[in-house]
Automatic annotation (TrEMBL):
Pathway: Amino-acid biosynthesis; L-histidine biosynthesis; L-histidine from 5-phospho-alpha-D-ribose 1-diphosphate: step 1/9. Residues 57-228 form the ATP phosphoribosyltransferase catalytic domain. Gene3D superfamilies: Periplasmic binding protein-like II. Its cofactor is Mg(2+). Belongs to the ATP phosphoribosyltransferase family. Long subfamily. Belongs to the ATP phosphoribosyltransferase family. Short subfamily. The gene is hisG. It comes from Microvirga thermotolerans. Its EC number is 2.4.2.17. Its main location: cytoplasm. Catalyzes the condensation of ATP and 5-phosphoribose 1-diphosphate to form N'-(5'-phosphoribosyl)-ATP (PR-ATP). Has a crucial role in the pathway because the rate of histidine biosynthesis seems to be controlled primarily by regulation of HisG enzymatic activity. This is ATP phosphoribosyltransferase.
Amino acid sequence: MTESSLIIAVPSKGRLQENAAAFFARAGLVFTQSRGARDYRGTLAGVPNVEVAFLSASEIVTRLATGAAHLGITGEDLIREQISDADAAVEILTPLGFGNANVVVAVPQAWIDVRTMADLDEVAADIRARHGYKMRVATKYVNLTRRFFAEKGIADYRIVESLGATEGAPGAGSAELIVDITTTGATLAANALKVLDDGVILRSEANLVASVRAPWSPAAREAASAVLARIAAEEEARTSREIRAALDPDRASGLAGILEDFGATLPFGEPEGRETVIHCKASRVFEIVAGLQNLGARNVTVRAFDYLFRPTNALTERLLRRLG
Ligand SMILES: Nc1ncnc2c1ncn2[C@@H]1O[C@H](COP(=O)(O)OP(=O)(O)OP(=O)(O)O)[C@@H](O)[C@H]1O
Ligand SMILES: O=P(O)(O)OC[C@H]1O[C@H](OP(=O)(O)OP(=O)(O)O)[C@H](O)[C@@H]1O
Ligand SMILES: [Mg+2]
């Protein structure tokens, strides 16, 4: 490990931990925690100059924002909440398909006439008239709430910062409504709350994120390229298939049309004998097979890959373009 190492911040607890570890494992990236499970630093087997930091999802955002980590996995909700200049500080490389949750505005179900954000204006006036104080919104998403309420033209309210069990606030009488994250809606329902019709502030999921402000030494860039190449190769493999078939050379002229129609390629060039090998999107496999059979192809087989390495990949390109 050197000062110029690539630092990757990985969730060590909470909802994202298991999925994040599985995500790296699929890409053939195995953590080695030298001093056992309580060690909060590790390395990546077979990738030199990498330091893995095991942190909470929220701490990962802090490290990415300050440049204390180069790459990290964390929720978009936390990025948008915690970094005021998110687009300048970080580059979101790719969404990861897990950790899905919505940040929402929720009010008591008993408020039957309140359905939209616009209705909150009246609620605020009512609370002021009846109790003499501002409508209170309990949340830990203070910045997301301020921005969203301002966009919707709601100004007459006060935020009550909540550090947990936010959904309990209206029942406990410490706020009238809440902004919090929800996945199944079970916690909202258990607390007799409902989401406003236009009350979804953000649809969040876990993302692979790069810090723009981290010290991107040549060694860090090289290590990041190696890591991203594996991640991209796993994704490319997952979404691609190989089709092999025995095709009469006299009919091979019909191939071009099929390749073009379905965005498929000949990874080893034009077939020399009967053996034809095609790479294509997994979603187009059966259309291509049908096309090949129309050309009289026989013994058509379809295979999936573990990894598919292309000369370049979108993740590395995106990172290097951003770093300049
Ligand atoms: N149902 C959910 N509730 C909360 N967070 C979720 C949910 N589903 C996915 N997430 C994502 O996981 C991130 C981390 O949430 P989690 O509750 O696991 O953090 P944590 O480490 O336990 O921190 P805290 O103790 O502050 O909640 C959230 O910010 C969000 O991006
Ligand atoms: O819509 P649901 O599927 O019910 O999930 C939403 C709940 O999950 C999260 O809490 P978590 O369990 O992480 O506990 P925490 O409040 O300690 O973070 C979140 O803060 C909500 O309370
Ligand atoms: Mg939590």
